[in-house]
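Need Universal stress protein's 3D structure for a figure. Predict it.
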Amino acid sequence: MPRSILVPHDGSSSAQTALRYAIETFPDARIVLFHAIDPFEVTPGEEQLPPLTDEWLEDQRSSTTALFEDARASLEVDEVTIETETGVGSPAQTIVAAVEETDADQIVMGSRGKSGAPGLRMGSTAELVVKRADVPVTVVR
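Structure prediction for Universal stress protein:
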């Protein structure tokens, strides 16, 4: 049985399903909820990338804290301890790098992120993580 599970979360319903799955399937494992802050993500309504300033990074970290709180609040399990970690960079690369940094021995992630096109079985981030990770990856739909 895995002793440490990395669960990437981007706020999508698929990521939340993966978090629930990890908690239910590996009740004795250490759960690390992870968010990759993507400096190259253009959000709807923006025509260009925002400047990468300390203020921008602080705003992203604040949003990540809210994302983690929302993810925990919607769980029906109170006694689970969930650690949180963040990284900055391309999501797939940052997730793969986080495996070593968090000493995870498995990744459980959603099949598609919040920007995934409907109808796709697996998004590009999940596909890259599956290809590049040195630990088992469970993709949850």
